[in-house]
Write a structure and sequence with these properties.
Layout (H helix, E strand, L loop, with lengths): L9 E4 L2 H9 L16 H6 L5 E6 L2 E8 L14 E8 L9 H16 L3 E7 L3 H9 L3 E7 L5 E8 L3
Parallel strand pairs: 4-5
Antiparallel strand pairs: 1-2, 2-3, 3-4, 5-7, 6-7
Keywords: Transferase
Protein name: GNAT family N-acetyltransferase
Pfam families: Acetyltransf_1
Length: about 160
Amino acid sequence: MGACRRMLYEFEPVNERYAREILSWSYGKPCSSHDEPAEGLLAVLLAPENNYHAILKDGELVGFFCAGPDARVPGGNYDGDALDIGLGLRPDLVGQGLGLGVVKAILRFARERFSPAAFRLTVATSNRRAIRVYERAGFEWECLFEGEGGAEFAQMVREAEG
């Protein structure tokens, strides 16, 4: 008899309640670049074509992710067939050791839903904590680029399988 695996995280399309909660989050320094004004972003989070999903644990919102063009940062090179992933963990949960498990759950879900050949994500090089998590999840540095406002970003990729 096989072992039963309990799903740690569940995914649902972002609804208005989740979107408003996500837009209320504030990361502070050094991640204040993630704190953007909510104007116009509510519609972006709710648009089905943007593939925003709430990440839930025991029915509680712990983060979100998006897949596809909305996960891209202007200035990057997004050629190729990798699925772009963007994500955010609820600010009070950052630094509590949840990142790797959340990233692995996102990759599992996205692999089943989108069947990509590879995953790509874009992260500010100043976000060292996130970069360490992505490296532990099997992502490798692909390139660096300067985004709008002069911030430096890294694009990281990994194969979808594995």
